[in-house]
Design a protein that fits this description.
single chain; alpha/beta; 9-stranded mixed β-sheet; 9 helices; 9 strands
Length: 263
């Protein structure tokens, strides 16, 4: 719930705030009376992937908070910041955002890397977590299918090598970005059994049987998180969350209905 309300708030506002490493962009949709939910996008994406989901959740009475993760979208890294960071670092950015907005406790809905950030947040900041919906997330890098994991590792290594030999500044920035994004997936998250066990909020895990995340890994995650449920969508692929929204909305709606959050 919010610590304070502001009757002058508009239905939508946007802004930026500073951290030690980045300038984080965010949007708030809805007034301060709705239960706050933070939507977290995947690797290489931005808050814009949630346009339909945000409108749907706002219509149901939620206060929807969108953000661009550091190094993504409008959230720019500072020149002095390292390109090597983890989903744990990004979870810290989420905490700073809700403090900036004066919000005490949130539900988190994350997709792909956003799901990993949501789980990191719930493990680290239990008192600030009302619930978690993690779609196509993984607790360890090896939770990805082996060919995909090896491809990510190769992209990370090759972009680093090419960057050293590249003289063109624009092309070098592209290699830096590739190394940043692939390094994020190759090195994190690092959610151990112990850390997953610290998640106390009701948690919904959603994955597809044709996802890039191994089904056995999703099942392992569910066993470690005390108040969790896993829904495996038959035949669903990783990007189906973005293209076949109605299927995912039904599962998420059921989760909220059971918690009494749905209007």
């Amino acid at each position: 719930m919010r610590k304070r309300t502001d009757e002058t708030e508009t239905a939508r506002k946007s802004g930026k705030f500073e951290t030690d490493d980045a300038r984080i962009y965010y949007e708030v949709h809805g007034d301060g009376n709705g239960k706050p939910i933070v939507l977290l996008h995947g690797n290489g994406e931005s808050h814009k992937i949630f346009e339909k989901y945000a409108a749907w959740l706002q219509d149901k009475g939620f206060q929807v908070i969108l953000m661009d993760s550091r190094g993504h979208g409008h959230s720019l890294l500072k020149k002095t910041s390292s390109l090597e960071f983890t989903t744990r670092d990004m979870a810290g950015d989420v905490l700073k955002l809700i403090h900036h907005l004066g919000i005490e406790k949130v539900t988190l809905l994350g997709f792909s890397d956003g799901a990993n950030i949501a789980l990191e947040f719930a493990s680290l900041y239990q008192k600030h977590t009302a619930g978690v919906i993690a779609v196509s997330g993984n607790a360890k890098p090896w939770g990805m299918l082996l060919p995909y994991y090896l491809f990510v590792g190769a992209e990370y290594a090759v972009s680093g090598i090419l960057r050293e030999f590249c003289q063109d500044k624009k092309q070098r920035r592209k290699f830096d970005r590739s190394r940043m994004l692939n390094g994020l997936m190759f090195h994190s998250p690092d959610l151990t059994e112990e850390r997953l066990g610290k998640i106390q909020a009701p948690t919904l895990l959603i994955a597809g049987t044709n996802d890039v995340i191994r089904v056995s890994h999703s099942q392992w995650m569910q066993r470690q998180i005390p108040k969790s449920r896993l829904v495996l969508l038959k035949g669903a692929r990783h990007a189906d969350f973005l293209h076949k929204r109605e299927r995912y909305m039904k599962v998420i709606e059921r989760f909220f209905e059971e918690r009494g959050d749905w209007e």
